[in-house]
Amino acid sequence: MRILTIIVVCVMLGAVPTAAQNHSPEPQYGVFAFTDTLRLAGTPGEVYDGITGDVTGWWDHSFSKKPYRMYIEAKPGGGFYEIFSPDGEGILHATVTAAQRGVMLRFVGPLGLAGNAVDMVTTWMFHAAGPDSTELVLSVHAAGEVKAELGAMVRGVWRHFLVERFTPYWNTKTHHPISK
User: Is residue 48 part of a domain?
Assistant: First the structure.
């Protein structure tokens, strides 16, 4: 009798989902990983400084229509933040887990996949590639609630950020682009 009473109370309170309430699609789980390389003008330390800190000038994907500020706090425990207003409202896109100026930056978080059960590790490695140029190596590893085609999409978005947005921004800022 007690079990029947608990079930009746749960149904009355809506604690037991019914077929009509359960309209979420079944999640798909998977993994993806990729690595891309980009050559930029400047020393590894200069490129590291340019790609961290305030990224508002070149990062163009955001949750708010016009973010107040976007920045990467390049220290362990720091964050990749999108601030919506001067009051500090916003979102933490990722948490910095490793930072070594001019060598490596690693952050863990869903970035634009917030709201999904995804663990994504993004690593930027900086290598001297000549007297005044740097090879930036991007590595992304993700696991969780991801569909098979998501890896290619995320890779395309990173290409957009680094090749189409950061490179021209950086070349204008440094006034000495790498010639191809």
Answer: yes
